[in-house]
C-alpha cells in the first residue's frame, strides 16, 4: 500500500453520497476541507451532473476535500477509469481551510467543455447541487 494525497471536488468527495465517494472514504486515513486554484463548470452526464475543473486566475478557487488515502496497487488506475478520458490527473498545490499547504493529485478537465455547461459560482460543487436542486452523477462511466 502507498499513501497518496488526493484533492476531490465532486462525486469522489467522501461526503458526496455517491458509490465512488464511499470507495474513497473506505481508503481514507484523513481528510480536511481544502481548495485549489481554478474554476469549475457543471457538465450533464448520465443521470446527473458532475464538475469539470479548469484553469483560472489564481484568485479563483475550487472548494473540495484534501484526502490522504492508503491505496493498493491498481487503485489509482481505478480512479482514472472512473474519471474517464475527459480528465487528466496531475499534481497541484492545495491549501487546506486551516492554512496548511500540500501537493495532491487532482483531476483536471482536458477536453472542450460541452456547450451550455454552467459555471459553478463560488467553486463548490456540492453546495451548487443543493442550491439548484440538481442531482450528482452516480452511474459509473467506462464500466468502472
From TrEMBL:
What Gene3D superfamilies does the annotation carry? Gamma-glutamyl cyclotransferase-like
Q: Which organism is it from?
A: Novosphingobium pentaromativorans
Q: Keywords assigned by UniProt?
A: Transferase
Q: List residues traversing the bilayer.
A: none
Name the Pfam families for this protein: GGACT (PF06094)
State if Transferase is listed as a keyword: yes
The UniProt GO MF terms for this protein read: transferase activity
Instruction: State the name under which the record lists this protein.
Output: Putative gamma-glutamylcyclotransferase
Please report the stretch or stretches of sequence annotated as the Gamma-glutamylcyclotransferase AIG2-like domain: 6-126
Amino acid at each position: 500500500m502507498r499513501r497518496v494525497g488526493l484533492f476531490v471536488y465532486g462525486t469522489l468527495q467522501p461526503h458526496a453520497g455517491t458509490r465512488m465517494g464511499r470507495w474513497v472514504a473506505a481508503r481514507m486515513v484523513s481528510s480536511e476541507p481544502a481548495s485549489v486554484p481554478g474554476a469549475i463548470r457543471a457538465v450533464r452526464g448520465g443521470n446527473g451532473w458532475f464538475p469539470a475543473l479548469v484553469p483560472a486566475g489564481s484568485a479563483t478557487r475550487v472548494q473540495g476535500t484534501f484526502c490522504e488515502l492508503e491505496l493498493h496497487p491498481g487503485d489509482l488506475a481505478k480512479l482514472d477509469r472512473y474519471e474517464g478520458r475527459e480528465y487528466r490527473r496531475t499534481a497541484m498545490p492545495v491549501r487546506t481551510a486551516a492554512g496548511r499547504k500540500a501537493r495532491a493529485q487532482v483531476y483536471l478537465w482536458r477536453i472542450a467543455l460541452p456547450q451550455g455547461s454552467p459555471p459553478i459560482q463560488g467553486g463548490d460543487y456540492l453546495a451548487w447541487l443543493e442550491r439548484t436542486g440538481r442531482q450528482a452523477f452516480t452511474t459509473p462511466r467506462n464500466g468502472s
